[in-house]
Amino acid sequence: MMEKKHRSESKLHIIYRYIMLLIGATLAALAIELFLIPNSIIDGGIIGISLLINHLTDISFGILVFVFNIPFIYSGYKNIGKNFAFSSLFGIVALAIIEPQLHHISPFTTEPLLATVFGGLLLGTGVGMVIRHGGALDGTEILGILLTKKLPFSIGEFVMFFNVFVFGWAGFVLGWEQAMYSIITYYIASKMIDSVVQGLEGDTKAVIIVSDHYEEISDAIIDRLGRTVTKLKGKGGFKDNEKEVIYVVITRLEISKLKTIIGEIDTNAFTTIMDTQEAHGSKFKSAIH
Asked: Residue 235 sits in a domain of what CATH number?
């Protein structure tokens, strides 16, 4: 059987994607250095842990966030894909390099409430841009995806559970008032991430694709995303002609890559991305893991 070859991502799109990853990492670095650190406020996840240890030891935040994320990047490479891993590595390295360069800039505000609101907005925008363009700045969600195979929790529930310990630790280290500001920062940042990435409320997304190139798109999804697809029979509403419809369930970290695959093969494809409350079944989990 002849091996099918699929179009790779164009060089122009790769350059654009990495520019956006750089901008996202820069915004996150600005939020951390000019709003959060001067006011002893943290975020959740690996970024929050790195900020806490930086506060206790004076070890560079950039070094900490890079080192702590290495295992998650490796896991992402093995279980999600090399493009995701490389995009995440680029974003995290950019964050680690840019953040120390901002030390000499005076903080924008020393008012905790202002730092909480605007730091959260800026951080959420930066992290959201990185996720939207195929990467991640925080390994917590990657860990959540990998652990949901064995744990009876959704990714969102795991992240929330993880952050209970982070903010509890922050209460003892920074004081309970700063911990409460940090929780507000995390909430604002998470909502901003949802806004930037467009609809990340759920852990998984159900996608319906209608295209005349359904075979090529299906093969590319299987080969490049490691997802199984379901092909449905449909009929056009105007001409009553038969249509092949592709149905696939993906994680939110894979939305950007799926859009790229579809755009490379058929710019006229009709695609619907829907939130799913839950996704069960060995095929879906094995595709992740």
From this structure: 3.30.70.120
Asked if 194 and 219 sit in the same domain, the reply is: no
Q: Which residues pair with 246 in a beta bridge?
A: 209, 231
DSSP letter (8 states) at residue 254: G
**What pLDDT was estimated at residue 35?**
92
Q: Rounded CA gap, 90 and 78, in Å?
A: 17
How is residue 4 written in tokens? 């099918």
State the greatest distance between any 2 C-alpha atoms of the chain, in Å, as a whole number.
69
Rounded Cα distance, 140 and 75, in Å: 11
8 A C-beta contact, residue 100 and residue 93: no
Residue that terminates a domain, selected from 198, 216, 241: 198
Answer yes or no: pTM beyond 0.85: no
Q: Torsion-angle region of residue 249: left (phi > 0), alpha (psi -120 to 50) or beta?
A: beta
For 250, the 3-state DSSP assignment is: strand
Average pLDDT for residues 153-163, to the nearest whole number? 68
- Residues spanned by the domain of 132: 11-198
For residues 15 and 82, membership in a common domain is answered with yes
- Helix, strand, coil shares of the chain as percentages rounded to 5? 65, 10, 25
Condensed to tens digits (0 to 9), the pLDDT of residues 219-269 reads 888 888 888 888 887 766 566 677 788 898 887 778 888 888 888 888 888
